[in-house]
Design brief:
Number of helices: 25
Structural class: alpha/beta
Shape: globular
Number of strands: 12
Strand order of the largest sheet: 1-4-5-6-7-8-9-10
């Protein structure tokens, strides 16, 4: 009997311990949440309840509704939310600046390969000779964790204090690592496309300065004449066509390097090969007028002659001394080129300004002139819309003209120090101005397009139907050539040749297949709809 008790005693003790544990857990679970946590939970429950009620009255098909319901019910679960947004089709990233797209870790490798040294005071790259203390070689910095981390912080927004305005730091990063990019544009393109492929992105537009040194020299030779027409004529005589040829050589070399990096012409091609990429010719708005005009001339001509160049873009900062002084003049120049090349797309960073950064007057006309004078096809950022003269009338014009607003939410926070209260995303949405999300400088921001979708869903309470609309907008208002998949985009009615074919239900046939083959925009939009069909099937139960 005594031996039997000895055998069962451990089991009895285990049962007693389990009972005590369950009792303690029961008591713990009955504890009240702190008031702040309780308010947060109740607020979240109220948001979910309201959003689910809103979804019931929206015109959604059954798979969309179930997917949207699932997202609302799991919106505040960080892990499930991230998995959902990572797998969600996102269409296009229409502003992924090559100069700011590479992560600092990769830039360090490029700097080492270029034989650069790193200044240990300001962490800028320098040419040899290197010194082990004042400017050690990048090859050594890579293996020095302390110094390596300081460089990464200096070349990005990582660990930048949240209570400080990162504007100057953001801009300084480009100057610090610029020489690392030389000879590695193909590597950075490969990095961009690989990252895009992992996030279910079909298409990217990449702003890039192309043959900019030659363009500026052309502007210096041509000077400024009595009229834009005479300046342009003088540029044709001063070697404009030669600059165009040089730019095309640069583009071909870069894309060839990209294809080699990704193995696109081999049997072992990487996923990035299947993301379509095109470039935006980037004009530096802080150059003298003759050089700005020359870069515009090269950009517009290049779009007309090279299918890899989708449009023209003016780079930031918008508050630079020359950019402020010449803003209206530059819009006027663009108006001239629009009249001469009316089919060339123009994407303008406009209104990327806040109170205090510039005099108040500068907040009142930048977006308006970008649209009415320069004839921009889309506006990037448009932060100061509320300060424009008669903003409601301006937004009404943007809605009617279908001017897309491209929002880079991580950049808004890092570049201008804005929180969601100061970003006019919902202001545009409430007035039905088309909006899409983009990354701008994902390497500097240490983010990606999925992060942009997450910021929209958490900071702005934007649900799945709106996120899906962002993705659709990114292709509908992209600079892809050809007709749209949509005969009526507002009502999502497909064009006549594709009315009977359903994306995600087999390959298009007959007239629809022929239409998609002839219209690149429609082809990418078809792929997006097929992706959505497969994605939503995971939640249609």
């Amino acid at each position: 009997m005594h031996n039997c008790f000895k055998l069962i005693r451990p089991a009895i003790l285990a049962l007693l311990l389990l009972g005590l544990t369950q009792a303690a857990y029961g008591q713990l679970t009955q504890l009240r949440l702190p008031p702040s946590r309780l308010r947060e939970r109740l607020m979240r429950e109220d948001i979910i309840k309201k959003n689910l009620a809103r979804l019931k009255i929206m015109q959604l098909n059954e798979p969309e509704r179930k997917t949207a319901d699932w997202f609302e019910e799991n919106r505040y679960n960080p892990q499930l939310r991230w998995i959902f947004l990572s797998e969600m089709p996102k269409g296009a990233d229409l502003h992924n600046d090559l100069m700011g797209a590479a992560f600092a870790e990769n830039l360090l490798k490029f700097a080492a390969q270029n034989g650069k040294c790193i200044n240990t005071v300001n962490y800028s790259l320098e040419d040899p000779p290197c010194h082990p203390v004042t400017n050690p070689p990048a090859t050594e910095v890579i293996n020095d964790d302390e110094l390596r981390n300081l460089v990464i912080d200096a070349w990005s927004m990582r660990n930048f204090p949240a209570n400080k305005n990162g504007y100057r730091h953001y801009l300084s990063t480009f100057r610090k690592f610029e020489s690392a990019i030389q000879g590695h544009k193909g590597d950075i393109l490969a990095e961009i496309l690989q990252r895009a492929a992992k996030q279910n992105v079909l298409y990217v537009e990449i702003p890039l300065p192309i043959a900019s040194k030659l363009s500026r020299e052309l502007g210096d030779r041509a000077g400024i004449g009595a009229s834009y027409k005479s300046i342009f004529k003088h540029m044709r005589q001063s070697g404009l066509d030669m600059v165009i040829d040089a730019a095309r050589v640069d583009l071909n070399r870069m894309t060839q390097n990209l294809n080699e990096k990704l193995g696109c012409n081999s049997t072992h091609s990487k996923p990035g090969c299947y993301v379509k990429a095109r470039f935006l010719y980037q004009v530096d708005r802080n150059l003298p007028p003759n050089e700005v005009f020359a870069e515009m001339a090269v950009g517009f001509m290049l779009v007309k002659t090279d299918p890899m160049v989708a449009g023209v873009n003016l780079s930031i900062p918008e508050d630079g001394g020359v950019a402020i002084r010449d803003y209206s003049k530059q819009m006027d120049m663009l108006g001239y080129f629009h009249k001469k090349f009316p089919t060339v797309y123009l994407s303008l960073t406009a209104g990327d300004l806040v109170q205090g950064l510039v005099p108040p007057q500068e907040l009142t006309f930048h977006i308006r002139e970008a649209i009415s004078t320069a004839h921009a096809s889309r506006i990037e950022q448009g932060i100061d819309i509320a300060y424009e003269k008669n903003p409601e009338k301006l937004m009404n014009s943007m809605r009617q003209k279908k001017i897309l607003v491209l929002s880079c939410l991580a950049t808004d926070n890092n570049f201008l120090g804005l929180n969601n209260e100061n970003v006019p995303l919902t202001f545009y949405l409430n007035d039905h101005v088309p909006v899409a999300l983009a990354t701008c400088d994902e390497g500097i921001n240490r983010s990606d397009l999925t992060s942009e979708f997450e910021i929209a869903s958490t900071s702005f309470d934007i649900g799945y139907p709106e996120l899906k609309e962002f993705a659709r907008n990114s292709l509908e208002y992209s600079f892809l050539g050809g007709g749209s998949l949509w005969g009526n985009y507002d009502r999502l009615i497909r064009v006549t040749p594709c009315l009977q074919d359903i994306p995600g239900k087999g390959e298009p046939k007959g007239k629809c297949a022929a239409y998609l083959a002839d219209n690149l925009r429609a082809k990418e939009e078809w792929q997006l709809e097929a992706q959505f069909s497969r994605f939503e099937a995971n939640y249609d139960h």
